[in-house]
Design a protein that fits this description.
single chain, about 230 residues, alpha/beta, Rossmann fold, 2 domains, six-stranded parallel sheet, two-stranded antiparallel ribbon, 8 strands, about 50% helix, about 15% strand, globular
Length: about 230
């Protein structure tokens, strides 16, 4: 029994962020954005770009470089970022423990949805790396939401695709936690994106794990919550 005698609610759906959570891409994204900005004679500090990774490109340009950069160069910067990130894509690999975690989620007969705001060609590559077409019931791309994280659109779309009722979010960034909170989902975070425990907890993460293996070992706790 939970606190105050409340019975736990069993989770029926797990929404996984992909970039930085299941596949190791955050630093490639940061470098790609840096190179994109440099094409337009802007030099934001890499640490500032890294702090924004997890947002979609529709949010990141203004967050990093300001409203004027978005107004003048937003679409060009996003196109440049795509060109730069494409060069890194063949090097991208899953984090250790990613596929065993997904396998166990499916063995538990939970709905599994991969929530990515990436471009379709990038998401296709991740699905290949993770055997995602077999393991996931659904996935999202940048085409599935009007606004990306920290807006809740992508999380809500992911839930709708699998008709999830009681769900949790697994992510790596403060933006995952904020988006999930706005969508009414608790978040469990891993440190694979480079964010600190304090940052993730302050953003709303219920618990923070050092690795996907540690998170998998705690699935019994994660898959139930207070009613």
């Amino acid at each position: 029994m939970g606190r105050l005698g409340k019975a736990p609610t069993m989770i029926d759906t797990i929404v996984f962020d992909v970039d930085g959570t299941l596949v190791d891409t955050n630093y490639q994204h940061a470098l790609s954005w840096y190179r994109a900005f440099r094409r337009y004679d802007m030099t934001p500090a890499l640490w500032r770009i890294h702090r924004a990774i997890g947002m979609g490109g529709d949010q990141l340009v203004e967050a990093v470089a300001g409203e004027q950069a978005e107004d003048e160069y937003g679409d060009q910067l996003r196109s440049a970022w795509t060109e730069e990130f494409d060069k890194f894509l063949p090097e991208v690999q899953p984090f250790e423990g990613a596929q065993p975690l997904l396998e166990e989620v499916r063995e538990r007969e939970l709905r599994l949805v991969l929530a990515s705001s990436g471009e379709s060609k990038h998401v296709d590559h991740y699905l290949d790396l993770l055997d995602g077409r077999r393991l996931a019931e659904a996935w999202t791309t940048s085409a599935d939401a009007e606004q990306t994280k920290p807006a809740p659109d992508l999380v809500e779309t992911a839930m709708a695709k699998v008709k999830g009722v009681h769900a949790v979010m697994i992510g790596d960034s403060v933006w995952d936690a904020k988006a999930a909170k706005r969508a009414g989902l608790p978040t469990y975070a891993v440190r694979t994106g480079g964010f600190s425990i304090g940052e993730l907890e302050d953003a709303g993460a219920a618990n923070v794990y050092d690795s996907l293996e540690d998170l998998q070992a705690d699935l019994d706790t994660i898959t139930q919550r207070e009613a």
